[in-house]
Amino acid sequence: xxxxxxxxxxxxxxxxxxxxxxxxxxxxxxxxxxxxxxxxxxxxxxxxxxxxxxxxxxxxxxxxxxxxxxxxxxxxxxxxxxxxxxxxxxxxxxxxxxxxxxxxxxxxxxxxxxxxxxxxxxxxxxxxxxxxxxxxxxxxxxxxxxxxxxxxxxxxxxxxxxxxxxxxxxxxxxxxxxxxxxxxxxxxxxxxxxxxxxxxxxxxxxxxxxxxxxxxxxxxxxxxxxxxxxxxxxxxxxxxxxxxxxxxxxxxxxxxxxxxxxxxxxxxxxxxxxxxxxx
Length: 279
Fold this sequence. Notes:
Elements: E1 4-8, H1 15-28, E2 33-36, E3 39-41, E4 45-47, E5 52-54, H2 55-64, E6 75-81, E7 84-89, E8 92-98, H3 99-125, E9 128-132, H4 150-156, E10 159-165, H5 171-181, H6 184-187, E11 190-198, H7 206-216, E12 220-225, H8 248-268, H9 271-278
Parallel strand pairs: 1-9, 1-10, 2-9, 3-6, 10-11, 11-12
Antiparallel strand pairs: 4-5, 6-7, 7-8
């Protein structure tokens, strides 16, 4: 299957949760699945046997029923303040680095190379890799340094779904605006949209969904209702970290939550249409 990347119209749109759900859904279908996020900025990490990656990708690996390895998140940035981060490369502590040095001297050379190398390793080992973007792909001031969204999608020859958080408002404009701000070569990679965190009857969204299709010539693959699952947070943005102990009991509870999440997503997304698109 072709790789699939989930990107968002903003941070907090639901990328991580959707990747988690899709990992379990396609694992249940019998595919060997792996999650992947080229670069993640987070203080919430998973410590394996001699390596450290983002906690979010470890949770997605549980959902995918695959081994947690450094290749799932080859670049981890742990923010230290004053524009400095501690950088981990393929699970190993690299160095403390200032944002200017990271973006102007590292990210587009060594950073992108490391990310592509890890992705290709996963692709050789699995039937299907589900990639997660970061923030928004349409941050014009960061575009040339962004190796987590469209540059990675292009390198991976991945199709893209764009998810938006309708609860915060402005979702229809965010979908159209994000698409409009992307280069044509990247617009072609986006195959459709997912509306997340909706409260109410889906039928009231039909005029908006029709307008989106009319404006973009791309479909909405589904509307995911607002829900609350007891899953550890993806990163530290406006969130106080909750400790998660990776023992058998807690992983068992995590699997139950992932099953509930994947069931909700599967019943509200056109999974068969997505699968056909990726064949």
